[in-house]
TrEMBL record, chain B:
Region of interest: Disordered: 271-312
Taxonomic placement: Bacteria, Candidatus Eiseniibacteriota
Species assigned in the record: Eiseniibacteriota bacterium
Annotated family: Belongs to the MreC family.
Coiled coil among keywords: yes
Keyword entries, A-Z: Cell shape, Coiled coil
Stated name of the protein: Cell shape-determining protein MreC
Length: 166, 312
């Protein structure tokens, strides 16, 4: 129960950050996807089933901002969780480098799915979105979220970084 | 029918992900109206408490951030104001030292455009000026780009400005390069297009020449930028030509403007007070003027204040 409350608090904080401070760290219109962090952590700590339903609910919550895209964030996060599940089984999930790579793959996958949806079947448009938005966003997310996680761990004095899951 | 050992648990493990993926895909393939309806339903049911909490948090934080930003802007504006004041004082000190006298006697009165009207007779702006300000009829209205028109009527804080693209406005202008003069006016229904009529054939108004006010008459001071020559053609009589001028300032893009209000002649720039003679004496006490320089310059070197008017 405490875990759920903590999780909801983190999501609440991230939503507030997204609508207030996130604009300040945009680079050429590209913003990091902060919500991939909680999805990643939940999937690693609680397993695939938890991760998938958490990803589904969080995706729906995010898509409420733009109802025309309802479902796309859920799908992107769910597929990212599935990829993470496959990767975490095969690799050493305690290694920070492995986690970083897995996180990068998840970020790329979720952004590419969003990009494909936004492209709407037009190949040129889709390629442009992937090149201009999706890939830079994934890279930015891969840098910002782990860095924030590491910083948070240092601030709170925990031994391992927040993304770490034993 | 039974499944081989281990297959059933594996399939069961995929039920959750499959349902979640199917649900997401279903939402994606719904018509847009249904998606909107589903989002509204979710927002007001499952996610209602969360959305309310986040909205409150966002609201208070956003307000604080905005307040912080506004305070920073205010501080920056104060600093900028101080810098401008400092520069102004330094300029005035130097002018006193040199014994310069103001040639342009206009005082600037700011105004904000509140109504734009494009009537049959041309463009008219209604401008709001600070309370207690009196803008005499005929006061020139300028913007950073140049002359925009003149004041024709004031009712309390509202001043009506007839723009250059108005039939009521005609003005004496000259070509800054050749000093050829002419009377400029607007001929409807031209848009951003003024005309000079009865221009002698031999006068040289070339495309791109700057057109400025000539200072003749009592309305507009000399040297205000009016526009640029666009071209010319021989008029119907064949004895003269018409010159077309593109105005520098556009009424459609004007948000704020300044009225140039005449001040009494002989006022010294060194003092904003109402006693120019005293100001001059004070200035000469503080900064003795070299007699040789004074005699060379006469009563003082005349100049046009570049900060006041859009001097060509």
């Amino acid at each position: 129960m405490l875990y759920v409350v903590r999780l909801l608090s983190i999501v609440f904080l991230l939503l507030v950050i997204q609508s207030t401070w996130l604009a300040g760290i945009r680079v050429f219109g590209i913003a990091p996807d902060l919500f991939l962090g909680p999805v990643f952590v939940v999937s690693l700590q609680r397993g695939r089933a938890w991760g998938i339903w958490f990803a589904f609910a969080l995706g729906l919550l995010l898509d409420l901002e733009q109802p025309t895209r309802l479902g796309i964030s859920s799908l992107a996060y769910i597929l990212a969780v599935l990829a993470l599940d496959r990767g975490a089984r095969a690799l050493d999930r305690t290694s920070p480098v492995v986690l970083l790579v897995l996180f990068g793959v998840c970020a790329l996958l979720s952004e590419v799915i969003r990009g494909l949806w936004l492209g709407g079947g037009d190949a040129v448009h889709t390629l442009a979105i992937l090149g201009r938005v999706s890939i830079p966003s994934a890279l930015y997310t891969t840098v910002v979220v782990p860095a924030a996680s590491w910083g948070l761990a240092r601030l709170t004095g925990t031994k391992t970084w927040v993304l770490h899951a034993s | 029918m039974s499944l081989p050992g281990g297959t059933a648990p594996r399939l069961r493990a995929w039920i959750g992900p499959a349902v979640a993926i199917l649900a997401s895909l279903t939402l994606l393939v719904l018509p847009e109206s249904a998606r909107r309806a589903a989002a509204t339903a979710l927002e007001h049911s499952v996610f209602a408490p969360f959305r309310l909490a986040v909205g409150w948090g966002e609201g208070s934080l956003a307000l604080r951030l905005k307040l912080h930003g506004l305070l920073a802007e205010e501080t920056e504006a104060h600093l900028e104001q101080d810098r401008v004041r400092e520069t102004q004082q330094e300029n005035e000190r130097l002018r006193r030292l040199l014994g310069f006298e103001r040639r342009t006697m206009e005082e600037l009165v700011p105004g904000a455009v509140v109504i734009r009207d494009r009537g049959r007779l041309g463009d008219v702006l209604t401008v709001e000026v600070p309370p207690g300000t009196v803008v005499p009829n005929g006061a020139a209205a300028v913007v950073p780009e140049g002359l925009i028109g003149w004041a024709t009527e004031q009712r309390e804080q509202r001043v009506r400005v007839a723009c250059l693209t108005n039939r009521d406005v005609t003005l004496s202008v000259l070509d800054q390069r050749t000093r050829d003069e002419g009377i400029l006016g607007w001929v409807p229904p031209a848009i951003m297009h003024l005309e000079l009529h009865d221009i002698p054939m031999r006068s040289e108004w070339e495309e791109g020449d700057r057109v400025i006010t000539s200072g003749l008459g009592t309305v507009f001071p000399r040297g205000l930028l009016v526009g640029w020559v666009q071209g010319s053609e021989i008029d119907q009589t064949g004895r003269g030509k018409k010159v077309f001028v593109r105005p520098a300032a556009s009424p459609a893009q004007t948000e704020e403007l300044f009225f140039l209000i005449q001040r009494p002649d002989g006022s010294w720039i060194a003092q904003d007070g109402d006693a120019p003679a005293e100001a001059a004496e004070d200035a000469s006490d503080l900064y003795p003027i070299d007699p040789a320089m004074e005699s060379e310059n006469g009563a003082g070197t005349s100049f046009e204040d570049p900060g006041v008017l859009p001097v060509p």
